[in-house]
Write a structure and sequence with these properties.
Length: 174
């Protein structure tokens, strides 16, 4: 059995996402931003973040799997769904739920760079720095979290709990 406790409340999370939206709006003043949400986990974060960006926003989606067992990834990344619109010449921000080992995003950012965006940045709701294996530059980071398995606001445990409006920690996992 396991239990779930609150790590970041809905109020704190949304307040921070608003700040991130305001920062992006300042950084891209006079331009447009193209957000690429990494499914499924990034969906809640991207919809919330996009509400607080005041420059013109377009959105797209990608889905990747990173093979691994249980709760950790392995470095082998497969594109399940590619983005629909071309990236060339656009100000792209990849929007991801959490950077853990860094395998997924280091691979993905290298791949997207080859598609010639005008700029390419990364917004991550959460960062788990203690687990990093591949270096990844996070341009917009919501919160650092400890090396624990977290859920909610898009993040799942066995596909469940994505709909929690806060970030919780799963305790008692074996
Ligand atoms: P990375 O490739 O190890 O950086 O992490 C890739 C993916 O693993 C993230 O996008 C999440 O989908 C998932 N992940 C990593 N840590 C957690 C966690 O604590 N809870 C839920 N999913 C996680
Ligand atoms: Mg993910």
């Amino acid at each position: 059995m396991y239990t779930i406790s609150t790590l970041i409340s809905e109020e704190k999370l949304v307040a921070r996402i608003k700040e991130m939206g305001a920062q992006i709006s300042r950084d891209y003043e006079g331009k447009s931003v193209h957000l690429i949400c990494i499914l499924k986990g990034g969906a809640y974060f991207m919809t919330e973040l996009s509400k607080y960006i005041t420059v013109p926003v377009t959105i797209d989606f990608m889905q990747v799997t990173s093979y691994g067992s249980g709760t950790t990834s392995s470095g082998i990344v497969k594109i399940v769904k590619d983005h629909d619109e071309p990236l060339e010449g656009r100000e792209v921000i990849v929007v991801e739920d959490i950077i853990d080992t860094g395998y997924t995003l280091s691979y993905l950012l290298e791949m997207l760079k080859d598609r010639k965006p005008a700029s390419l940045k990364l917004a991550a709701m959460l960062n788990k720095p203690d687990r990093r294996i591949r270096e990844v530059k996070i341009d917009y980071c919501g919160f650092d979290v400890p090396d624990k398995f977290v859920i909610g606001y898009g993040l799942d445990y066995d596909q469940k709990y994505r709909n929690l409006p806060y970030i919780g920690v799963v305790e008692g996992l074996d």
